[in-house]
Amino acid sequence: MKLLTKKNFIVFVVFLNVMTAACQKGPNIPKDTNLPDTNLPDSTNIADSAKTILFVGNSLTYTNDLPDLVSILAREMGIKVLAEMIAYPNYALEDHWNDGQLQNLLNLKHYDFVIIQQGPSSRQDGRTSLVDYGAKIKALCDNHNTKLAFFMVWPAFANLESIDGVIDNYSNAATVNNSLLCPVGYVWKYYFLETSDYSYYGPDMFHPSLKGSQNAAKIILETLFKKP
């Protein structure tokens, strides 16, 4: 995976202590009356040539090098993926748009997919940002014959009650902008409800563990390459 960074940019990721045993009992996650099927299709279209993917996001993407995990898993599935990444701490879509690096890259080379994410965005301001800047990025992708996908993330463990807001706002942004949706946060919600296992979270209970990133990679690949 090729990491695209700013000049002299240094990333410091500070992990907090592991949550206490009392916290591990789990929060009150909103539960639907009818539990939907969260199993995604296993079948994929095997590409004859490499597919290029540009990840645009923040620490939820660069933790555990998600693009590299996607490339590795794709290879195991018989799909060749070349992944690149633009990701900085605490960045939202607006920050990426204002930087201009995304626009420059799409003008320089072709990508089959651009995958975007920002923070959990469970509130109205997050929804507005996802929709409005998602629209700008979608128009840019359309001009370059590139498919856009929203990478639905998740809230911190301490704010897990807000997960429905995350799901609704990412889903709405993808629908409004006629884009693909990688429903990672949605799948995580029902995994937590069914198992009370929160091991998709890393030590700070916000960023993903390696297991969580591997699960996200699987969902992303199944979204991009599932059969119609």
Explain this structure.
With 228 residues, the protein is α/β, with parallel strands linked by helices. It has one domain: Rossmann fold (3-Layer(aba) Sandwich), CATH 3.40.50. It has a 6-stranded parallel beta sheet, sandwiched between helices. α2 crosses α8. The longest helix has 20 residues. The protein is globular and about 45 Å long. The two termini are 28 Å apart. The relative contact order is 0.19.
What labels would you give this structure?
13% strand; 228 residues; Rossmann fold; 6 strands; alpha/beta; 6-stranded parallel beta sheet
Give me the secondary-structure topology.
Elements: E1 2-4, E2 51-57, H1 59-62, H2 66-76, E3 81-87, H3 93-99, H4 101-108, E4 113-116, H5 124-143, E5 147-151, H6 163-176, E6 180-182, H7 184-195, H8 210-225
Parallel strand pairs: 1-3, 2-3, 2-4, 4-5, 5-6
- Class from secondary-structure proportions: alpha/beta
Name of the CATH architecture: 3-Layer(aba) Sandwich
Helix tally equals 8
Rg over CA atoms: 17 Å
CATH topology: Rossmann fold
Helix content: 40-55%
Superfamily at the CATH H level? SGNH hydrolase
Trace the largest sheet across and list its strands.
1-3-2-4-5-6
H/E element string?
EEHHEHHEHEHEHH
Integer average pLDDT: 85
Largest sheet: 6 strands, parallel
Q: What would CATH call the class?
A: Alpha Beta
Question: How widely separated are the two ends?
Answer: 28 Å
Question: Low-confidence parts lasting 5 or more residues at pLDDT below 50?
Answer: 6-25, 33-47
Please provide the count of β strands.
6
- C-alpha geometry: globular
Count of discrete structural domains: 1
Strand content: 5-15%
